[in-house]
């Protein structure tokens, strides 16, 4: 739906040394009043009229800040552009009245930055605040001089002359649109990129000037920002164009009149502004009901601003003026022109478009998801565990999902095992993130073991569990035989058999083993062997752990059950520069265990070095950033100096009429200027490169920290498991030893104690 909107016109008065008392502003009413005494000699515009009053949408006196100008004039046009409406803000007024100050100001100093840099800050601030909106910014900067267009965003800005800049030509498309051929469109991903483009354009503007070709007076500059905005979940995007226009000085129109201009075309006096006036007059007549052709096509200027004037665009004009007595006639002309502009009616429409690329991406994602769901429903996954490459795949997917900037990104997996793995990975990351290190020993949950990211390790652990279960069964059989022997020696005892009933019936696998023990002859362990095993397992825990660490258990009888674990320990020990002599208490305190692990962790030094290097690079980046800021000031000062020198030389008549001729002094200044600009560019490139390196190194450091955490988790799990198993197995065997030694004494309580310990051992093994 389109809405009709008039062009709002504002007046800004620049500060001057000697303001005339014939001019008055009424801020509340938004009026400007000129009281011109009747004085035909001075040739004022109409000596019959003494008072001229002009109405504006707002008037701004000399003390108005740049911020206020942006807030009152530009802000809502920029906000509308983000919503998809075209916008234009143009400054009109005589030379020196403050057009460039209002539009560009001094972008380096925030307080005196004009509308263009403030527009850029506003857009990127908005993008930072509204994470739910994706905003793509593209920038062009066009200069129009003598009816021809020039691209101000050329990378190689060694141009000495306006005509060295690439030319821009308007081409009409079949559907009546205008394309600006030769005008570069630069993507600006960050605020810094956008400001740098403005900076490049400004420098090109200055350098292309010559004393006889005072571009700041006679050329128009149009800073174009194209915004493409969309919500991540939407197929629709809005595309809008913001034109920020610094027009040439308006005085020539007033002083020479249209005919004068036409006659003097060859001397380069500005025709574009004349055509702009003409278009505005025609639009005025159209607004008054006349059916009239609007001559947009007569100049590049009016073609570029076609939408802004009478078209689909929210347009604002800033009329700038000075109230010095000599400037009042020009200021009256400016106000008259403003009045005509204020009559123009635009039709503003939101520019929405369905983006085929977004739809294709969305359909692809949907397709992937449906395929995954189908695979799950069909039960295509018949496996009970994942291969290591599949676990790696899941990890990669989770990483991609977490690192994606696209809020619509999804995690697609096609079976429940992978889904569990992805959840596990997420949980693991979350745990690391929260750094909630529990101080109690953590025995891994069954799922965690099945889904651990090392399948080989899982397999080995499962084998070990199986072996230990078999050992229990074997010991069960042995104890049964032992009890039979004791009972045979003592005669039948009902109480004793009652005691045996409980634990046996609760353990189906033991029952089975028991039956088989009757059928198959089971070798009873010799007393010497029992003694030896008990001896090993009742050694002091600290000494035992030292042995585990050094892998010396391989030669011990218990090594049958712990062979695989030892192999894993060896692998984990490979990560350490020396064995960790850790006490029981330290093992149970995760923080001190982590500290000890870190000290012996082989990769810790490399990690420390990387951290050091990263810090140094960050410091260099900071220093370089400060240097670049300073360099901008140096360049700006040189720019002012060149301008100043030119003006002086024109005044003193030191330069000839050849526009390409420059004095030696100027030549020197330009050379210095180019040199400083090269330094700026090199430093800027260096900073970009440094930033990329810092980013890469930060990621590397993050990964290496994660890897250390993972290695630590593996190591501590293994150590805890070893400790628990060794303690449980020690109790079982020592009970068994006591039982076999004591024979008939207090058999009932001994057997009870044995089953209690065996139960604990079983529970541990099942975990
Ligand atoms: P124009 O672009 O209309 O020819 P400028 O913007 O270059 O004029 O202004 C001429 C001079 O006046 C510049 O030095 C500028 O800094 C100064 N100037 C203009 N307007 C203001 C203002 N509102 N406040 C302070 N200085 C101003
Ligand atoms: Mg200017």
UniProtKB/TrEMBL annotation:
Domain Kinesin motor: from-to ranges: 6-344
GO biological process: microtubule-based movement
Residue ranges the record marks as coiled coil: 603-707
MF GO annotations: ATP binding; microtubule binding; microtubule motor activity
SMART domains: KISc (SM00129)
Binding site for ATP: 93-100
Superkingdom of origin: Eukaryota
A Pfam family that the UniProt record links to this protein: Kinesin
Keywords on record: ATP-binding, Coiled coil, Motor protein, Nucleotide-binding
Annotated TM spans: none
Keyword Cell inner membrane set for record: no
Protein family membership: Belongs to the TRAFAC class myosin-kinesin ATPase superfamily. Kinesin family.
UniProt name for this protein: Kinesin motor domain-containing protein
Native source species: Paramecium octaurelia
Taxonomic lineage from the root: Eukaryota, Sar, Alveolata, Ciliophora, Intramacronucleata
